[in-house]
Design goal:
Elements lengths: L28 E4 L10 H8 L2 H9 L4 E5 L2 H4 L12 H16 L4 E6 L5 E2 L4 H4 L4 E6 L6 E5 L4 H17 L5 E5 L15 H4 L2 E2 L2 E2 L10 H4 L3 H19 L4 E5 L11 H8 L5 E5 L4 E5 L2 E5 L11 H12 L3 E5 L17 H14 L3 E3 L10 H11 L6 H11 L8 H15 L6 H6 L42 H26 L5 H31 L7 H24 L5 E2 L4 E2 L3 H16 L1 H6 L8
Parallel strand pairs: 1-2, 1-15, 2-3, 3-7, 7-10, 10-11, 11-14, 14-15
Antiparallel strand pairs: 4-6, 5-6, 8-9, 12-13, 16-17
Helix pairs in contact: 1-4, 6-9, 9-10, 12-13, 15-17, 17-18, 18-19, 19-20
């Protein structure tokens, strides 16, 4: 079916172009979401304000035919078994119904994220009436919150889940589908926080990932295997869904399955689930790259690694051989590699991802999580190219996106290609590891600085939320030495700066808003990389702090970072997207925070003699 032109929505044109034969593939699901809503708090409450007709039109213009939202099932689904659930049913179902109708006008389906059955805190009155449903106990790390799982192996809980899906899909006949996580993110199933011994002692941001004992204590689930527990839950949910609406889809995401204490858990689960459940597998996780002379694992989203990983390929081949449907989970805008810029312009890697996904004929793509979901060059390039029915070569891919999205002329294509090649080469030096991207300073470095003293070893915390930062940068090195991280960022910055030379000449000739946004995003990324480099150089100084000898090096680094922040400041003034982390819905650096840092740096530089005598009285960021 030919798509309807949406040229009027974009200053650079819409879907249709003579080079890019635009026929939508109705069978391929491609899901995105807006960056303006917090998936953990009030997603449905804000849905109608966030997903306006304009927002939905722009998501569709980028080629996506689905959006996803998250809310606890017990908030919007009543139950004859549990009177405590569904008290806000009418309000939430009305919101969903109106949103579904609005989205359908733009040929977009609404998908709900299920993390069920959701665990309930131990002090909740619910347990006074339903003691027999208690499953695994879990205490949340870093807090006093304790939970019991609502055991999915109990017949009453099974009935509740099946009934809920049936009710929901009958009442919301236009609902497109669901995607389900069964082994992580939050506490749900009794087995979701179990870890293999080999994964158990990993450390991120100074805290061991001791989320649960490796032993299962739930008496019902203890008598079953992990694949039985998960596959039975998935089949139960799916049966409820299609009983209410046979056209509704369900995607089962394998997030966390690889760390469960069961050999080849993923394959064992997929063997057991209904053939029409779409197996959603992480595209990059399980891969590896050579970085700074050593082979390094890729166990998170990555734009610098094209994929697919050997793990995904194994799942893809198994699914195709056994007649199962399969989709890919990936990030296309930006990732934890640098989540506080709207876009990482790694277009060469992005082309390889989408070309493989198109050639493989994947049934679905979940193209974003709860960050990296601002609409950018990357999201347009991926969404548009995954949506069209005919394959295309790399030259057409490049030509179409610069002309249709950036408003550039074909004569500038060579400049763009040179820039993208430099950016790709730069990211080959990025010190990629799960501990680094989760706990390192990369996302907040422009608003972070170390005090002039010896390292105290206080935790920095996760890189995806806003908090007071400590100075322990050792726990997030992820197998790299401090010297390797410094060298990696030095090389990264060298190649990124060269790419910016070509990017500036290409983009500044364009007169479109999108072109200016992409230039500012890439320049902001360069400043963030420079801040990260200066932080690690400073960390090296503070590791060997000597009050009599270290001040000269400290002051020199303050001057370098001052210059970098002064370059960044006007960019932040002009572009209010920069520094925002959509996962925590907060700015990890901003114009205000960088000004504060500049004031502190100036204090260190101008008052070095006084501060040398009494450095600990100085203000902290």
């Amino acid at each position: 079916m030919k798509t309807k032109s949406v040229d009027k929505l974009s200053p650079c044109g819409g879907i249709n172009s003579p080079e890019w034969e635009s026929f939508t593939r109705d069978s391929a699901i491609n899901i995105f979401r807006s960056w303006k809503s917090d998936c953990w708090q009030g997603d449905l409450q804000k849905a109608l304000r966030v997903y306006t007709d304009r927002e939905l039109a722009e998501i569709r213009e980028h080629g996506y035919n689905g959006i996803w939202l998250h809310q606890k099932l017990s908030d919007y689904t009543p139950s004859r078994l549990f009177a405590e659930f569904g008290t806000a049913r009418d309000r939430y179902l009305d919101v969903l119904d109106r949103l579904i109708q609005r989205a359908q006008r733009h040929n977009i389906g609404v998908y709900l994220y299920l993390l069920e059955p959701r665990a309930i805190e131990t002090n909740d009155p619910f347990w006074k009436n339903h003691t027999e449903l208690r499953g695994q106990f879990w205490k949340q790390p870093g807090s006093n919150r304790e939970y019991y799982a609502l055991c999915s192996s109990h017949p009453t809980v099974k009935q509740y889940l099946h009934d809920s899906m049936l009710q929901l899909t009958r009442q919301l006949s236009g609902l497109a589908g669901f995607f389900v996580i069964t082994a992580g993110e939050d506490f749900s199933t009794c087995i979701c926080k179990l870890w293999k011994r080999s994964h158990f002692q990993r450390v991120i941001a100074g805290q061991p990932l001791t989320e649960m004992e490796t032993d299962l204590s739930c008496p019902r689930c203890k008598a079953r295997t992990i694949p039985e527990i998960i596959s039975d839950l998935l089949n139960l949910l799916y049966d409820g869904i299609i009983s209410g609406n046979p056209g509704c889809k369900m995607l089962a995401w394998d997030w966390g399955w690889d760390r469960l204490p069961y050999q080849r858990a993923e394959v064992s689960i997929v063997k057991r689930i209904h053939k029409d459940i779409i197996f959603l597998s992480d595209f990059e996780i399980g891969g590896s790259r050579t970085i700074l002379g050593r082979k390094r694992p890729v166990n998170e989203y990555s734009l610098s690694y094209a994929g697919p990983s050997p793990r995904f390929l194994k799942h893809f081949r198994f699914s195709r051989k056994n007649g199962c449907r399969i989709g890919a989970k990936l990030q296309v805008g930006t990732t934890h590699e640098l989540a506080t810029v709207p876009n990482l312009p790694l277009i060469r890697s992005l082309y390889r991802k989408v070309a493989w996904a198109r050639a493989a004929g994947l049934d679905a793509v979940l193209a974003t999580w709860n960050m990296g979901n601002m609409r950018t060059l990357n999201t347009y390039a991926f969404g548009q190219s995954f949506a069209v029915s005919k394959l295309f070569n790399q030259h057409i891919f490049y030509h179409v996106i610069i002309r249709r999205y950036l408003g550039a002329r074909e004569s500038e294509l060579l400049l763009f290609m040179r820039a993208w090649k430099c950016f790709e080469k730069a990211m080959n030096y990025y010190p990629y590891s799960t501990p680094f991207i989760y706990g390192g300073p990369i996302n907040y470095a422009p608003a972070y600085w170390l005090m002039p003293r010896s390292i105290q070893g206080t935790p920095t915390g996760m890189s995806c939320d806003a908090r007071e930062r400590g100075d322990d940068l050792d726990s997030c090195r992820g197998g790299y030495t401090v010297e390797e991280i410094i060298h990696g960022f030095e090389m990264l910055i060298t190649h990124w700066q060269r790419g910016m030379f070509f990017y500036r000449h290409a983009l500044l000739k364009c007169r479109t808003v999108h072109a200016q946004e992409e230039y500012r995003s890439a320049l902001c990324a360069l400043c963030a990389f420079k801040s990260a480099l200066n932080v690690y150089r400073l960390y090296e100084v503070c590791l060997r702090w000597d009050a009599g000898k270290s001040w000269k090096a400290y002051r020199n680094l303050c001057e370098q970072e001052r210059d970098n922040c002064q370059t960044l400041l006007p960019i932040l003034k002009r572009d209010k997207r920069l520094g925002f982390h959509a996962e925590c819905q907060q700015f990890l650096f901003s114009e205000k925070l960088v000004k504060k840092k500049l004031a502190i740096l100036s204090g260190y530089i101008n008052n070095a003699c006084n501060l040398q005598k009494n450095p600990l009285k100085n203000s902290r960021l």
